[in-house]
């Protein structure tokens, strides 16, 4: 209630507690960059007037002199306010300001005896009253759930988190720069689909009242982008949200950002080169080198990525050889012997993939393309011409995590229909993530799609890697959460406690 009383006090003084337009001439980072290394005498002789604005994060001093730290989007700068300089009325406004309030500062530069760069205030402009106190400065947001629910508080109090999201923007910009420079066109495709496809995942379902039809939030970008290849666009990409009605953990969120790109006349080996290029360019652009340290482990993305067939990787780790053709019963026997669980509808290819996931995936520390996925788990990828049990598909693994999925696209409409029918049979047998038959997409292929290489990269996982974030929630501004059950009365009580703590 104290803050509301101060708000009314400002109004009585003729000051709008929620401010108006305010012009600045610089920011905290520019001032630090320009003047941090200058001698004290040089800075103190600096007579150029500066104007900054930001949130007051700390305040100290008493009597006729006060110091405060102002935080803007670039960082913090200290301000020095003297009653005999700004005047009694203006100093009163500064003294009555609370942590969290927004102030505009006009003044000149100086350095304190301790050598800290400081703005010597000539005038303080009140810009916005914060009616709730910030979290305790010594403890911050200790509740991880609160950090995710109230991301705005996390951004205010946790500079590491703030910088991570700035870096996220730079990473996405770097990905765009690389693709644009290589002749790709950025496009936008529908989020609402009449049929879920392009990935094996459970979709979110909604209903369009005017058309009286069910629609699905997209689970992938793939099928519409390939329609554009049919239409002659040749090189396209999209960076957008996709939605999957599945579990939540440190690597998965129901909505996430995906990059998909498609290039006519590429095969999956060309896409490997493209993928290496994207990762290498983004890493060097944002981090300044190809070396990445993630959760204590370091890799060098400037080095060539390894390329290993899935069957060879399994054989190396387990001694099990899936190159000889075998029956489902033979594959099930191998699974039983090695403790690999399987479903009743699984074929040999499913079991091969299960071996890979159980024994190989987490061991792939150096950047590695695992290629040659079984046809049963790759309904949209082209068969390998030498061994039709496998496809010209790869996944990229770094430090045991998957970062990309790509293949030479299946452009034979007859084969595609057979794959869709096999997926439909799987769905009938109990696989609710299997795809259905997309007649419109098959029709598009029947008009002819050139040989094409396609790529999918989880942008959030790439950001996790380049910002050393342990959870996907740390790189999503607003991750999916259960509704907060804390009522307003409880929230007000918490705010009052924080207010009392800040006064002590």
TrEMBL record:
It catalyses: tRNA(Lys) + L-lysine + ATP = L-lysyl-tRNA(Lys) + AMP + diphosphate. Residues 168-483 form the Aminoacyl-transfer RNA synthetases class-II family profile domain. Its EC number is 6.1.1.6. GO terms for cellular component: cytosol. GO terms for molecular function: ATP binding; catalytic activity, acting on a protein; lysine-tRNA ligase activity; magnesium ion binding; transferase activity; tRNA binding. Pfam families: tRNA-synt_2, tRNA_anti-codon. CDD domains: LysRS_core, LysRS_N. Mg(2+) 1 binds at residues 395, 402. Its main location: cytoplasm. It is found in: Cytoplasm. Signal peptide: none annotated. Mg(2+) 2 binds at residue 402. InterPro entries: Aa-tRNA-synt_II, aa-tRNA-synth_II, aa-tRNA-synth_II/BPL/LPL, Lys-tRNA-ligase_II, Lys-tRNA-ligase_II_N, Lys-tRNA-synth_II_C, NA-bd_OB-fold, NA-bd_OB_tRNA. GO terms for biological process: lysyl-tRNA aminoacylation. Keywords: Aminoacyl-tRNA synthetase, ATP-binding, Cytoplasm, Ligase, Magnesium, Metal-binding, Nucleotide-binding, Protein biosynthesis. Its cofactor is Mg(2+). Binds 3 Mg(2+) ions per subunit. HAMAP family: Lys_tRNA_synth_class2. Homodimer. Belongs to the class-II aminoacyl-tRNA synthetase family. This is Lysine--tRNA ligase. It comes from Schleiferilactobacillus harbinensis. The gene is lysS.
